[in-house]
């Protein structure tokens, strides 16, 4: 796997799937999609924290997919501005996912006291694990994008 973390270029085409940090687009999409699916399949109570989790997971899934398409098609024209935008987006996505993961974990802890709905409790546990995993991938992508941005 080639490393573009310290290179002075942004990958395009198939190189997006073989370079760091851009290969992290795939697990970000997978885990973000799983959070979206799992939270959507539960009984949404309370509305406010679960609604925020849904917004974050859908927003980040769509934006990451668009970001991947832009990079894969070479729409970024290999400029330093795109490296900055990549860092800023992944920083905000990591922050958003962290701000959604904490309330989701608190709601799930509330379900642990009521064992009458074991199915939703187990689904929420999986959603919490995938949400924190997505947060970790976005955070790692943010750090590696910052290193690439600084070397541009």
TrEMBL record:
Ranges where the MARVEL domain occurs: 16-150
Protein keywords: Membrane, Transmembrane, Transmembrane helix
Keyword Transferase in annotation: no
GO cellular component: membrane
Signal peptide: none
Compartment(s) of residence: Membrane
Recorded GO MF terms: structural constituent of myelin sheath
Transmembrane regions listed in the UniProt entry: 20-40, 52-72, 87-111, 123-147
Topological type in the membrane: Multi-pass membrane protein
InterPro entries registered for this protein in UniProt: MAL (IPR013295), Marvel (IPR008253), MARVEL-CKLF_proteins (IPR050578)
GO terms under biological process: myelination
Protein name as annotated: Mal, T cell differentiation protein b
Organism encoding this protein: Clupea harengus
Lineage: Eukaryota, Metazoa, Chordata, Craniata, Vertebrata
Gene coding for it: malb
């Amino acid at each position: 796997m080639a490393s573009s973390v310290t290179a002075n270029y942004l990958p395009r085409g198939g190189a997006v799937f073989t370079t760091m940090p851009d290969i992290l687009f795939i697990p970000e999409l997978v885990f973000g999609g799983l959070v979206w699916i799992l939270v959507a399949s539960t009984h949404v109570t309370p509305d406010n924290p679960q609604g925020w989790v849904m917004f974050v997971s859908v927003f980040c899934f769509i934006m990451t997919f668009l970001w991947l398409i832009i990079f894969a098609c070479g729409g970024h024209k290999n400029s330093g501005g795109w490296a900055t935008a990549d860092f800023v987006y992944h920083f905000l996505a990591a922050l958003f996912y962290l701000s959604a993961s904490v309330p989701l974990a608190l709601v799930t802890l509330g379900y642990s006291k009521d064992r009458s709905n074991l199915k939703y409790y187990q689904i929420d546990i999986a959603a919490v694990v995938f949400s924190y995993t997505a947060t970790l991938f976005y955070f790692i992508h943010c750090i590696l994008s910052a290193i690439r941005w600084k070397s541009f």
